[in-house]
């Protein structure tokens, strides 16, 4: 479990790519201060497992599902990535519940500065916007952000100067792909409502057939 508050920007050191999988080595002095084999690390919002590490780098494996469903396959040596370690029970909860399980990707359609902020319009994969609301939360490349507008499949988010400097989103431009994870609580609510709609209508015949 993560919060969407990015701890460090890592640098991809090396990538070993298979047909539909890959192994990535990432440098980060901060993340490796307290890392163990099997730890979960959010890399651009994707929950990945540490398979080895050194004093200033760690390695993660990417399975086919993640390779095909996220922007991780586009990583190359030298690219910067958002990093966050799994949430500590004793730490502050500054963002929102982020699982690291990407719901889909989106393309940056527009990047526009307004006063001290930069607004992004992101065209999301079909269906993702169904789980988004204005003023709700969304994780873009693992960063917890507020949604300022939802129009069909387009999400509008805004980055303050601190977020621009401390995450990789600030350096991304129109046409680039981002990972999107919608609010976990929203997914549970919608799932429950959909199941409720599918439930049989409770009538006297229904009760009789079921032993009441």
UniProtKB/TrEMBL annotation:
Its job: Catalyzes the dismutation of two molecules of 6,7-dimethyl-8-ribityllumazine, resulting in the formation of riboflavin and 5-amino-6-(D-ribitylamino)uracil.
Keywords per UniProt = Repeat, Riboflavin biosynthesis, Transferase
Entries under NCBIfam families matching the protein = PRK09289.1 (NF006767), PRK13020.1 (NF009566), ribE (TIGR00187)
Subunit structure comment from the entry: Homotrimer.
Q: Where are the Lumazine-binding repeats?
A: 1-96, 97-193
Give the GO terms filed under biological process for this record. riboflavin biosynthetic process
- GO MF entries: riboflavin synthase activity
**Protein's UniProt keywords contain Transferase:** yes
Originating species: Peribacillus psychrosaccharolyticus
User: Which pathway does the UniProt entry assign to this protein?
Assistant: Cofactor biosynthesis; riboflavin biosynthesis; riboflavin from 2-hydroxy-3-oxobutyl phosphate and 5-amino-6-(D-ribitylamino)uracil: step 2/2
Query: Has the keyword Hydrolase been applied to this entry?
Result: no
Q: Which reaction does it catalyse?
A: 2 6,7-dimethyl-8-(1-D-ribityl)lumazine + H(+) = 5-amino-6-(D-ribitylamino)uracil + riboflavin
Q: What's the protein name?
A: Riboflavin synthase
Ranges where the Lumazine-binding domain occurs: 1-96, 97-193
Specify the superkingdom.
Bacteria
